[in-house]
Amino acid sequence: MKILVTGGAGFIGSHVVDKLIQQQCRVVVVDNLSSGLREHVNTAAKLIEMDIGSPELLALFEQEKFDYVIHQAAQTTVAQSIDRPDRDCQVNIAGSVNLLEACRKTAVRRIVFASTAAAYGNAADIPIPESAPKQPTSFYGLSKWTVEQYLALYRQIFGLEYIVLRCANVYGERQGNSGEGGVISIFSKKLHERRPVTIFGDGGQSRDFIYVGDVAAANCLALTAKTCNAAFNISTGTETSLNTLVKLLEQAAGIKLKKYFAQPREGDIYRSSLDNTAAGKYLSWQPQMPLSQGLGRTYQALKQPGLNQREGREW
Ligand code: UD2
């Protein structure tokens, strides 16, 4: 089968591509390389440098005739969505609708969409079930939730099949570690450089950290899962506070981190963990990577840049 992975040069997308290639799929990547890297794209995949919002996207779909689409391309950070809601909307909403148009006009069989825990906002019940109210506290959460609703309506009106994967905090090799990166990649880099970290808030805020290889596996399973037109949480189902994360990172590296505390970040949620029962039942998916081990791998990959490359990974 022929699969398009949007954002396939990015952090999660490039791991998805690797897994699909391992499964002998034919893979095309569409990525504008705004944050993704050409060298992260598996050489067995075809890379098209294009924006998902491009008017040329439809012609590409007509030419390639994709069976399935895995949609990972996005503006991915909460903080940037607060700085530039207009840009977040343009990429995450308008770009996705452009992609959906190409999907329905060329009879794509199914689209798998990367959504987020941020769609829930501050939920009452932890771990959060899929049915919890969607009350995003950031434009990023809002834009992802909006696309989920577009998918439901595209299904209803045009018959396009979909699966939404609401991912918790994804970490692992190849994650960016600049201001746009996740807390694990940022702290790992600081640790490696023996520089202090800044904790926004009291460090008591929790996240559900899920390894990128586990997320890639969930995407592959979602392509052919019998149950579709539904959303599934992809997570470990456990909460880890930032203070605990710092301790685990220190253990993984054998180095002490110096910490500064600053004001909580605008739009941040305090507690986050997602119930993953439904993904177990309907996708036959379970997280495999223990956090301490995943942190070790992430840190080692930073120390040995070769491990960040596709060829160096064992996952
Ligand atoms: C992450 C994802 C987002 C979405 C969401 C789902 C990233 C960059 N963003 O947003 O795409 O999937 O999870 O819930 O992965 N923090 C510090 N110091 C730092 C950096 C972060 O204290 O230097 C804090 C931050 O204020 C927050 C926590 O660490 O309380 C996690 O921050 P993050 O940027 O890694 O991820 P989050 O949850 O905002």
TrEMBL record:
Residues 3-234 form the NAD-dependent epimerase/dehydratase domain. InterPro entries: Epimerase_deHydtase, NAD(P)-bd_dom_sf. Belongs to the NAD(P)-dependent epimerase/dehydratase family. PANTHER family: DTDP-D-GLUCOSE 4,6-DEHYDRATASE-RELATED. This is UDP-glucose 4-epimerase. It comes from Dendrosporobacter quercicolus. The lineage of its organism: Bacteria, Bacillati, Bacillota, Negativicutes, Selenomonadales.
